[in-house]
Amino acid sequence: MTWPTRCWSFVLFSALIALASPAVAQHQLSIQVLDSDGHAIPGARVALSVDGHEAAAAMSDDKGEVTVASPLPHCQISVAKEGFETVRRDVDNFSEPVRMMLAPAAQHQSIKVTAETSPVDSGSSAPTELAADKVKELPSRPATVADALPMIPGVARKPDGNLELSGSPEHRSSLIVNSADVTDPATGQFGLTVPIDSVQTLTVYQTPFVAEYGRFTAGLVSVETRRGGDAWKWDLNDPFPDFIIRSYHMRGIRDATPRLNAEGPIVKGKLFFSEGLEYDMRKVQVHTLPFPFDQRKSEGFNSFAQLDWIKSSKQLITATVHVAPQRLAYNGLDFYNPEPVTPDASLRNFTATIGDKWNLASGLFDNTISVTRFGANVWPMGPNDMLLTPTGNQGNYFEQQRRYSTRAGWSPTFTFKPLKRWGSHEWKIGAYGAYSSEIGQIFEHPIDILNGAGLMTQQVSFFGGREFRMDDTEFALFAQDHWTATKHLAFDLGVRTESQAVSDSVRVAPRAGIAWNPFSKLGTTIRGGFGVFYDRVPLNVYAFSHYPKQSIQNFLPDGEPDGGPFIYANTIGVADVHSFWVFKHPGAGDFSPQSGTASLQIEQPLTRYLQLRASYMVNRSAGLVVMNKVAPDPATMIGNYELTGDGRSHYRQLAVTAKIRAGESRELFVSYVSSRARGDLNDFGSYLSSFPIPIIRSNFSGVLPGDLPNRFLMWGAVKLPDGFRIMPVVELRSGFPYSSFDAAQNYAGIPNGQRYPAFFSLDSRISKDIKVNNKYSVRLSLSDFNLTNHFNPEAVRNNAGDSAFGLFFGQRGRRFTADLDILF
User: What element of type H or E holds 7?
Assistant: First the structure.
């Protein structure tokens, strides 16, 4: 029996024996459910769970009281009622009644007055949600939101570490935390995201057909953070470091990632506090380089603090502060870029928000004010030229930069009381306003391109460049209606207008979607829709004209200059895309990246334990900002590197997902995604990021770097006998595309015309909680990675001037790690 067969058999056998066994109730517990003002809440569902199994459930009476029975003298209580936040609490003392305080829900569903829910109530959008408490226990132990995102179909991480959503670069998507935009105004990147311990739910929208969401053309990542509970709770994860062991000798610390999570009430039933704090020191091994010069290093801390004040039963005020400084050493270290060629960096991320959710006039008034600040200092190891050769780069990294960007935003929305006319209408209106700015300067060193014999074929030098100061103002208005026409049919209709001062344009984005439950007894739900979306243009695009210009000198094989030198200026062009929905004054920089997205989805529960979802989506984007290389004029020998707004892309995706659930501790998520991503290759993000690539080549249209024709993913958590749990992760996918180059660093053949071998990895984490006393528990775990030792190379010799051209290497073989967590 092969390794994959053994592991699959073990997982399936474990899932079967993990079914809940019946138990006899012996301990009675009295519970009273109250709101924040001390009033009784009748009709609340009170569930009692023991070791992850629901042992009993009952509804509170007119006095908010209920009595439930437990088979053991310790349990967890969960209290839920529509319009209130669900509250959970561990109980070890059954001799005294327990009071559970419910706070008003923070989302707009808190004002829904329909007595019976239907599958169409959730609308036409079909997001994918992750529960943070499940994701953070996976073998990879994701520490942040960005670490967890690849567990979602349609999201992948490329070999260079960058995220791809719907086959597109990260900057084409938007990240919001508690309704606040937290992307970098300069680059559009996510930055260091919120600690996973502070996250309640993580949701990814590829097709949000409600007008509330904007400022993206690929996808939306929405994070709702966790509020402190009624009792103080502490978690300490990974308190001890992992060590580098080579030849049975310890060679230093590999990583230290202690994470502390604390939450609880400051004022009982009124003021709650939560804090997620992690220190992160990592040395990521690069398997294409020899030890000890194979360590990509990072160090920093990530803190997310939240205060929730229940001012009354109708008003909730939330304030958050996110601070995340980070130091990087040898960033981008790989076979082609050893330590001297890589840059170091100091990155800083700060975000503060305050939100006010107020049930007003039978509706919900939601205000969010946020301030975000990013900083990036990047510097090379020395002043030497960067040397590009077919077998690897030498010298020092070519760019040094310092920049600071800030955004201050305000987002008010109002959800009206449902209007009963021709069904039920839930109207929502809102606005968005933000001011952003960036200050920075770019310094660049010469780049020398050498052939296989070590002779220079081209030299790129830089001159000019000056400090830049950019600012922008954004405004948006939207109105949307969730119209429940019947119990089994609902529509989402809305329109959004956006304006960006720096691009001098006004954009109109209509959205429409449908949710239909044609066979209520079978539970079939059909969702679909179409929408127009616009991306905000990052400030680095408009700062490009302030970057240093290039002087390029070509050389003949004998070392003599081949004409020139040729000067390339940095210019910002005019968008060549016209749209009925965009109003602008033609001129330089009038960019309005846009996409038209359509999708169709069918959800079908097969049994109480198995639910299937199949979906198909198409995303056509135009007006994308790309870099074009304009050849020099023979008379003046002056050319241009021009940013234009005529880039295009096309993404198609067929996804089939299954959720297998037999209790809270027995869940498996299985997905298969077939996709196709095509478009212009010279995306501006490759050249205007914190770590740009050194060579600007001519733009081509073809397979995008994030294209994955096939991807199978399975992960979840299964409870085993004797208190053990296993968290398996299985991934099988196509290899990422890559390009080949000649000795002069030009494309050799079709760009992105080759692929890495198919990737397969079977990982798992087995853990067991050991209770030390009534307050403390220890969680022991053992994780394995690539258990089958499948060949998953990190790199390829992709230069035709290299004698080893076409060789894949850098295998990440089978490995194991052990962890210890302390639960308070």
Answer: helix 3-17
For residue range 765-801, list pLDDT tens digits in order. Answer: 999 988 888 777 888 999 999 999 999 999 999 999 9
d(CA 122, CA 278): 35
Cis peptide before 104 (omega within 30 of 0): no
Tell me the pLDDT tens digit for each residue of 158-171. Answer: 888 889 999 999 99
Element counts in the chain: helices (H) and strands (E): 4, 53
Q: What is the pTM of this model?
A: 0.83
Asked if 71 and 51 count as a contact pair (C-beta separation under 8 A), the reply is no
Instruction: Give the gyration radius of the chain's Cα atoms.
Output: 28
Q: Which residues contact 528 (CB under 8 A, 6 or more apart)?
A: 124, 513, 514, 598, 599, 600, 601
CA angle 303, 306, 307 (to 5 degrees): 150
pLDDT at 648 exceeding the cut of 60:
yes
190 token code pair: 């996510």
Convert the pLDDT of each residue in 498-510 to its tens digit.
999 998 889 999 9
Give the integer Cα–Cα distance in Å for 611 and 658.
Answer: 6
Residue 129 Cα distances to 205, 210, 614, 747, angstroms: 9, 17, 16, 40
Report how far residue 339's alpha carbon sits from residue 342's, in angstroms, rounded to the nearest whole number.
Answer: 5
Pairing of strands 344-360, 315-323: antiparallel
Residue 50 has pLDDT above 80, yes or no: no
Q: Three-state SS for 13?
A: helix
Give CA angle at 553 (551, 555), nearest 5°. Answer: 170
Quick: pLDDT tens for 306-352.
Answer: 999 999 888 999 999 999 999 999 999 999 999 999 999 999 999 99
Neighbours of 617 (CB within 10 A): 21
Comparing CA positions, the residue from 348, 367, 371 lying closest to residue 358 is 367
End-to-end CA distance of the chain, in Å? 43
Structure tokens at 117: 């829910």
Handedness of CA 6, 7, 10, 12 (dihedral sign): negative
Which residues, at least 6 apart from 296, have a Cβ–Cβ distance to it below 8 Å?
283, 284, 285, 286, 329, 330, 331, 332, 333
The pLDDT, as a whole number, for residue 45 is 81
Q: At residue 5, what is the residue type?
A: T
Q: Tokens 């010469």, residue?
A: 446
CA 680 to chain CA centroid, nearest Å? 23
Q: In 628-741, where does DSSP find H-type helix?
A: none
pLDDT score recorded for residue 13: 36
Tell me the residue type at 320: T
- What's phi and psi for 122, nearest 5 deg? -80, -5
Q: How far apart are CA 651 and CA 533, in angstroms?
A: 14
Q: Output DSSP code: residue 416.
A: P
Query: What is the structure's pLDDT at 746?
Result: 93
Give the three-state DSSP class for 226: coil
The residue among 754, 757, 721 whose CA lies nearest residue 739 is: 754
How many residues are there in the chain? 824
Q: What is the CB neighbour count within 10 angstroms for residue 462?
A: 18
Would you state the structure tokens that stand for residue 211, as one six-digit string? Answer: 């007008």
Residues 379-425 have pLDDT tens digits of 999 999 999 999 999 999 999 999 999 999 999 999 999 888 888 89
Provide the 3-class DSSP secondary structure of residue 335.
coil
Q: Is the bond preceding 292 in cis, omega lying within 30 degrees of 0?
A: yes
Q: Is-contact 339 348, C-beta < 8 A?
A: no
